[in-house]
Amino acid sequence: GPCTECSCSSGKETNKDTSNTKKKENGDRPFIPKIFFGTRTHKQISQITRELKRTAYSSVPMTILSSRDYTCIHPVVSSSGSNRNEMCVELLEGKHGKSCLYYHGVHKLSEHHALQSAHRMYQAWDIEDLVSLGKKLRACAYFAARELMVGADIVFCPYNYLLDPQIRESMEINLKGQVVILDEAHNIEDCARESVSYGVTESQLIAAREELDSMVNNNIRQKDHEALRGVCCSL
């Protein structure tokens, strides 16, 4: 019934056609918002997907966004240290005449999940499940998870994927009109602070100061570089 407890507009617009839900810009299909579920750690995502399997919504299309540290299956890149992202990009760009066989097999994973959904065999899965399937099909789990986001109703990811604008842009996450759930939201303040913070070492500052000294001494945009050198010296 209409709202009678307050002066909100819900009681005044009950005669309007509520079937006209928000339409997509390029068609008449209704816009169905995704649920973006943010957690503090990847381990917590595992716990949540495990609980999802136990509910009536286990068959809802979903995906998990995570870093290459958890999803890369390329034998060389995955076994490297901290430069997995750079190595992956180099392979995708074919810088050294090599490409990533697993990246070209991404469609195998997405088609597998689409087939399961069509036969109503779709079940909630975890990162380990996707990686295991990726190894079996020789398909990149990292990019497959991103591709699955298009048709997913629920997207699980760490906090910073939703809070950090650079990560949102790189992962092509658009939160406008979507539902955002943040688990253990008391940690959001620290995560937001980290997203706009950057750490540098003393040796990096010294190296930057020396480079700026060289710029100033050679009269290369001297006015701009003097100001930057002053910042380095003050730090």
Automatic annotation (TrEMBL):
The protein's name: FANCJ protein
Region: Disordered, residue numbers: 1-29
Gene Ontology MF term list: ATP binding; DNA binding; DNA helicase activity; hydrolase activity, acting on acid anhydrides, in phosphorus-containing anhydrides
Helicase ATP-binding domain ranges (all copies): 1-232
Originating gene: Brip1
Example of a GO biological process term: double-strand break repair involved in meiotic recombination
Pfam families membership: DEAD_2
Parts of the chain that traverse the membrane: none
InterPro entries, A to Z: DinG/Rad3-like, Helic_SF1/SF2_ATP-bd_DinG/Rad3, Helicase-like_DEXD_c2, P-loop_NTPase, RAD3-like_helicase_DEAD
Source species of the chain: Nyctiprogne leucopyga
